[in-house]
Amino acid sequence: MEKNRYLAGVFSPIIALGGVGAAIILNRSWWRITENAISDLGKVGLPHNWVMNSAFVIASALGIYYALGSLRELKNFVQKLGVGIFGAGLLFLALIGIFPEGTSPHYYVSWAFFITASLGMLITGIGFYVEEDRKFGAFTVILFLIAWFLSMEAMRTFKGVAVPEFIGAFGIATWHYTLLARLKG
Fold first, then answer.
1. Number of alpha carbons in the 13 Å side-chain half-sphere of residue 97
2. By CB count within 10 A, which of 94, 128, 169, 180 is most buried?
């Protein structure tokens, strides 16, 4: 994999999660992980909402650049289809930043990010399992199932949705870095 695409893959989750972390620090007087959504940190009218929203747009651009480059490294159609769907999920991440909470498309693009990115992850893993790397494929399917199960449990447990959102985001980031290492090595 080209070095610049590899670096884009390395920095994409760091920028997205770093933007969320910075927004949490800026809004620590009122924001609570168990009572809020991550999107509350970027809502329309909030001072410094650009911190998280711009991080999502930048991270998305880097992630899509990486995903497009990784298509050349993949061996079969199912893997490529999965990474293409994952890339579409990253486009929805940018749309979360472009259409923050308080705009009509926000709810839909937020759900679309989590569903599309994790579905792309799952399809890619299945592509690895059936043809090339059963360990990575099994890891992907297990990670997908654990993240979705824990997220659904967290949605029943907490008032806000930030905990399930973080579970999903960390599951996606974990898979992303595992794939990145696998493609590099």
1. 23
2. 128
Alpha helices in the chain (DSSP H): 3-26, 50-70, 77-98, 106-131, 134-157, 162-184
Question: Count of CB atoms within 10 A of residue 185's CB?
Answer: 6
pLDDT one-digit tens code per residue, 101-149: 999 999 999 999 999 999 999 999 999 999 889 999 999 999 999 999 9
Helix axes 162-184, 106-131, angle to 10 degrees: 40
Q: Cα separation of 165 and 147, whole Å?
A: 10
Q: State how far the alpha carbon of 97 is from the alpha carbons of 55, 58, 106, 159, in Å.
A: 8, 9, 9, 23
Per-residue pLDDT reduced to its tens digit, 12-67: 999 999 999 999 999 999 999 999 999 999 999 999 999 999 999 999 999 999 99
Distance (Å, rounded) from C-alpha 175 to C-alpha 144?
9
Q: How far apart are CA 168 and CA 129, in angstroms?
A: 22
Residue 93 to residue 61: CA distance in whole angstroms: 9
**pTM score, whole prediction:** 0.95
24: its two tokens? 């949490």
